[in-house]
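G., before I forget:
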Amino acid sequence: MGVKRGLMALCVLILAACSDSRSGDEIVVYTSRADHLVKPVFDAYTAETGTRIRYITDNEAALITRLQAEGASSPADMLITVDAGNLWLAADRDLLQPVQDGDLDNAVPAHLRDAEGRWFGLTVRARTLVYSTERLDPAELSTYEALADEQWADRLCLRTSKKVYNQSLVATMIERLGVEQAEQVVRGWIGNLATDVFANDNAVMEAIAAGQCDVGIVNTYYFGRLLRDRPDMPIRLFWANQGEGESGVHVNVSGAGLTRHAPNREAALDLLRWMTQPEAQSLLADLNLEYPVNPDVAPDETVAAWGSFRADDLNVEIAGRRQVEAVKLMDRAGYR
Amino acid sequence: MHLISTRLKLRRWRPDALVLLTVLLSAMVLMPIAVLGLSWLGDESAVWRHLADTVLKDLILNTLLLLVGVGAGVLLLGVSLAWMVSTLDFPGRRFFDWALLLPLAVPAYVLAFVALDLLDFSGPVQGSLRQWLPFFSGGSVRQPWLVIVSLSLVFYPYVYMLARAAFMVQGRTLMEQARILGLGPYAAFWRVALPMARPAIAAGLALALMETLADFGAVAVFNYDTFTTAIYKSWYHLRTLNAAAQLASLLLLFVLVTLVLERMGRGRARFAQQGGQQMHRVRPRALQRWLLTGYAALVFLAAFAIPVGRLVFWVVDSAWMDLDSRYWGLVTRTFLLGCIAAVATVVLSLLLGYVRRTRRHRLVHAAVRGATVGYAMPGSVLAVGIMLSFAAIDQWLGATFNVRPLLLGGLLALLMAYVVRFLAVAYGPVEAAFERVRPRLVDAARTLGATPAEAVRRVYLPLLAPGVLTALLLVLIDVMKEMPATLLLRPFGWDTLAVRIYEMTTEGEWARAALPSLTLVLVGLLPVYLLMRRMR
């Protein structure tokens, strides 16, 4: 009997899941940003405009594959993801449509968006050095590349090469230094490792604080979050590559684009515009202690307290263009 | 009787409706896998060469090491504990009897991140050791042995549960007969009890090993690269889904070959047994008894009490604020999805079991075998196979009948993923239950004039009920823990606890992942509790 009832419930549910239709003013978003980082933004937009937003979260590669498989029948209007590499890939697979819009172009600096308007940065994420205040004088630090020097032997901690942030960092190094030199740097890093690479940035910082190593490379918002919980951790950020002729701090974006077959293009475009304006910019950036992409908007106090830096002005799409090269390079160098 | 069976043999084998249904079912299950097989049409030699030149050798060695290690681990833990609780008497036996099943409710990725948080260099254990012991410097525990231990701790319950049931069923008569024939208690175990329990143990081992092969979450926490890592590397990082699909199909081939070998090894042995009387438990000497208690307690602490305690600590410390009304929605949906998927999966496995039992034919056996390989498939790879096939069907439907997409983005796609992946889990206990239905019983019912339908209702169903219940509960637990397929295929609004765990861990927010993890364990306790009840 239980079986029968279960089967009936099953049928009802399948029908329900198949037949829920979309009302006119509703935007469907595929996002690799976690629920708690986007929902407050969407809620604010719904409160302001009455437009409902439905979204699904997943890994970016999975979402891009899904968009591709769904083709013209995809319900998605917008793709939001972190790392320009992923946005570039979606554009490269022809999953995003070009948008010409003065407001967007004004709000988002040129090197943080696609030249054809297929995606726009929403927040800026800086990846830089973090060091132990107990065992290291920041005067010793200079660049990402210098961490390959012998003086850092057994003092370096890194996160796994499987994370796109490291792939993008290496991709921009390839762009500037060429494959051979970039590979030498990565080999140098691996030779200097104090311990196996970690699964996430937090673990890198905890290892530095615990004395397993002295310096690492992390995204700044992880630093911010960790210090919010444990303000007395003996670690600090160091802005890398600030010297004359050096590249500046490696930055990347989280960003969004309209899908190629967006069923509700106009509404989605309105949302995208709104997201690059001050109110949403503050929400988007502050929720995760990142930097607003719109230069007119100031970062959160906590973030501002880390000081200012010169960012790499290379177009972030390089991260996408050279990502596969970077992955292969890291495999060759034994960077797990 | 003789006449009937001779006639049956003489009649030419003709597939009937049930057989066709079975073949259709296994075709459905195999569809997403076949779609992945199509990947071989594309040329991925560049990716292969890159993998072969750089990481492939290590990945394969790592995977083999993991399989051997976890295999040994789950056998050691599962069989020894099952033997202890079913035949020996020691303090706390009644408690451990059911408590040792609890780790089944702990997802592997949860145990992994808790273990690492506690034990790694920056964790509290090494931290205190460094404080107290000046000569202790510590080091990384992200080593193969800890991965093996962690996975063994979460997967041993499969072996434990099935081995325990087997030892219980053997009962006292068998062991007494062995002893009468002059075997000592240990020899009786090695030469009689263990071989008799082999099919059950092998079934549990197969489940544990397939879980190990498909695992991505736990090995990712340790950054331990396995063959599954290569699949994801190709898809996510080298950006070729095709090469990922090729790798995944190789993995499946490996599993299929292993399963066939196991079957062949089992041969034609039948293990229908007499129901046993209550086991007469041996009472070892005091010291030994307490050693047994210590051993069981150690496993229980490491696999369940400490990880859950750590989660509770995190939740109390910081994560309770996430406990809002939306959260109950997650819990409800997780449970609901699990129930629906469990019922669907078990109904289908019953069909498979019945057909395999009553229509002895190679085609049927192959179809059944084929329908149960999905378990070794990493969830997201399987999900991609389903996504691609459903998208193709949707597009064809759209072009032909001008309808909007029906399949993809609906609940059906997700349920399909669960069924394909967990059919093996359901099929194991169901098949074992079928094996307990002695052929003579059915023959007798038929000779006494029962129609086939009556035979099913009055002989099969009552005898199958325990196995069916076990299957339902196991699938329920597994579905609730499943993460990657849920992420990729869920319809809008069908977020589950596993989805929430993914969102938090992917942001490195381990403490905030504790609440959904703890909830998942608690929700999983209900089915485990029911399993225990029926194990009594």
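The longest helix of chain B spans residues 144-180. Confidence is low (pLDDT under 50) at residues 1-10 of chain B.

More on Monday.
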